[in-house]
Amino acid sequence: MIFQPMKNILHFLITAAFSSLLILVTGCGKSDAPQPNPPTTPGTLKTAKSTYTIGMSQCNLGEPWRVQMNEDVKNAAAKQPNLKVIFKDAQNDTLRQRSHVEEFVSAGVDLIIISPKEAQPLTEPVAKAMEAGIPVIVLDRRLLGDKFTCFIGADNKKIGKAAGQWIVKKLGGKGKIVELKGLMTSTPGQDRDSGFREGLAGSQVEIIFEADMKWLEPDARKEMESALSRFNKIDLVYAHNDPGAHGAYLAAKAAGREKEMLFVGIDALPQEGVSYVSQGILNASFQYPTGGTEAIDTALKILKGETVAKEITLGSRLFEKDNVANGGQPLP
Amino acid sequence: MSKMNTQSARPSTIVRIWSNPASRALLALFLVVALGCIFNADGAFYKLGTHRDALRQASVFGIMACGMTLVIITGGIDLSVGSILALVSVSFALMSIHWGWSAAVAIPLCLLIGTVCGGVSGGIASCFRIQPFIATLAMMVFARGLAKTISGGMKVSTAVKNPDGTYHNVDVPGIFRFIDGRVLGGNLSMVTVIFIICAILTWIILSRHRWGRQLYAIGGNEEAARLSGIPVVLSKTMAYAACGLLSAVAGLCQAAQEQQGDPEAGGGYELTAIAIVVIGGTSLAGGRGGIGLTLLGTLTIGYLDKILSINAVPEASRLMLTGVIIIAAVLTQRRRKS
After folding, report:
1. Across A109-123, B65-79, B321-335, which has the greatest mean pLDDT?
2. Dihedral of the CA atoms A209, A254, B178, B180 (nearest 10)?
3. Which of A229, A234, A267, A272 best probes binding to B when mutated, by most B CB atoms within 10 angstroms?
4. Per the domain annotation, does A276 fall within a domain?
């Protein structure tokens, strides 16, 4: 039996130790990405130039698409013996990403690739990096103004429109479809919706049911079940991402109605959309390219002193059953 | 069906602490169902399939809420259930899809993982008298990190990576199809059956077993329970372990229904599970409540969600409506009690 005061002190100590541990864990618990963070001595690399160090700041590795982006950057960089990439994951925290940029500047990297979480708070840190003489490639999401070297990204609106036009053609100009939307407070969700409606314009294709499934497969399945119980005939399901389309397929299959309709998704990640198309689960998936490979190509050009375009728009690819084995078909 | 059970069982089962809150919880459920009858989405609400789907969807939450009820009755809280669900669904997918292990090995192992996670946070909370909120918060973060580590940050799906970076597809394991299947001529989802089994087992523990009584005693007055010879630390740890076990069961169901293990799955599920328990009428202060109430809470939340979904209510209005209805349900509980 411990004395009461001693017990209190012990209790306090344990609580204190535990909460500091917790803060530590909350801080770095999510760092699942390879994050080699070797001490970089400023200046030395600049003079040597035998190898270049690139700092890559990813806004959130919680999304498979962004994991794929890092993978693409890593694979492309691995082919260049003189490139070393330092990966950092901001875990969906703007301020953490801001400190990434500042850390890269003080570490004296040769180039920064950033896939920013938000435009406003990251515009200024990137501008400061540019002032320090470090070129910055902005991937996927935009920053404000023009204080960066190059922006690489795909156009969600264009992809949504292409999906709409493909659907109109596939359905022969008329039909009843379900739209399962991504988070409608996010720009990709809004663009994939507005582009899609542009693509449908002028046809007799009618959206009979629409719901926000927040990019989540279980939610997509739930919403699709509701659509199935309300409508006896559905010709096609358009989901803003492939897991959403897969969820819809599972709902339709459980109701024995998966043969009645087509399923179309977006993103075409190798392990998701492309795999679903080759298994015959989805009828089509439109690729939303990560730009990881292009970022490294562009980085090389910049480091060699070549001039690059201020803005590079990535092309998309369409994956269907008959072209999936050949790596899809590029969209115009 | 479960509605009827509770209603007819109310007078016969002489558990006094149930009788009053149960009728309140039923009232909330009836209000929600009445809402469904008014906004029936062109008759979709009257279709059998709608109810089957509503129950399927609520089952995972219901299973977690059963475990949460055990913990809340002791006066504690468990925030780690959603992360344990993700950890188990990733483990289950890895074992069954990627490694091709038989379900007879994978399922007990997965259940063990959940039990250990729950037991560890519960043990830390009760042995060292750390607030359960903190201990389970730590487990919530840790288990999520572990799920991401073992899955490599990607969803574990039927597309398996080859050494050269390409993917090949494997079949969905039979056990996944079994759990995601249906019984009674396609009128009841297997996950709902699993939920009902979990509910019955926890009900037996809480109302018929000595350990269940001990949990109520601890929730009522922990010091008094200790003085009267109840092994408080052990009983409480076991409650968290059981909660972890049930989260693991929910994780198995989640993986089977998604046909993959998603390390991001279950985010925010802990709050839904707590809401279900509270709407049912189990007291957050501990010592009062039961599984029957949680069952009603599950149906209330499940039907509310389904009604909003078949009417294609926009997301923003859904969140606001859910908030209002949760408050309304909880207020009904309070007013009648005094």
Report:
1. B65-79
2. 10
3. A229
4. yes
